Amino acid sequence: QVQLVESGGGLVQPGGSLRLSCAASGTILSLNTMGWYRQAPGKQREFVAHITRGGGTNYAASVKGRFTISRDNAKNVVYLQMNSLNPEDTAVYYCIGALVSYSRPQYWGQGTQVTVSS
């Protein structure tokens, strides 16, 4: 089993930045990839970014060039640096862990709220 705990959400003005963290514990070595999804009010949950055990990354088109995902293997933490935030980025952000593919994650965190508003 894997446990994921997010932190770092909050309220930020348009154009601002936030960094989310996801601390992982448990059988982490079983995970091929970790990443982030988000769900905005009234919308379906959507993929944001992921990073493989080897460091390969992939981003949703809507965040590419603004968000950066990284990981600290020594600390078992995955980060999501979010820059140039806009109101459309407002959502609950979920950390995920997948045994095979980021598109079918087996593990989810509890979520952290990000609100972009002036």
Describe the overall structure.
The chain has strands spanning 2-7, 10-12, 18-26, 33-39, 46-52, 57-59, 67-72, 77-82, 91-98, 107-108, 112-116. The mean pLDDT is 95. The N and C termini lie far apart (40 Å). The strands form 2 sheets. Strands 2, 4, 5, 6, 9, 10 and 11 form a 7-stranded mixed beta sheet that branches. It has a 4-stranded antiparallel beta sheet with strand order 1-3-8-7, with no helix packed on it. A hairpin with a 6-residue loop joins strand 4 and strand 5 (46-52). It is an all-beta fold and 118 residues long.
Brief rundown of the structure:
With 118 residues, this protein is mainly β. It has strands spanning 2-7, 10-12, 18-26, 33-39, 46-52, 57-59, 67-72, 77-82, 91-98, 107-108, 112-116. Strands 2, 4, 5, 6, 9, 10 and 11 form a seven-stranded mixed β-sheet that branches. A four-stranded antiparallel β-sheet has the order 1-3-8-7, with no helix packed on it.
Topology readout:
Elements: E1 2-7, E2 10-12, E3 18-26, E4 33-39, E5 46-52, E6 57-59, E7 67-72, E8 77-82, E9 91-98, E10 107-108, E11 112-116
Parallel strand pairs: 2-11
Antiparallel strand pairs: 1-3, 3-8, 4-5, 4-9, 5-6, 7-8, 9-10, 9-11
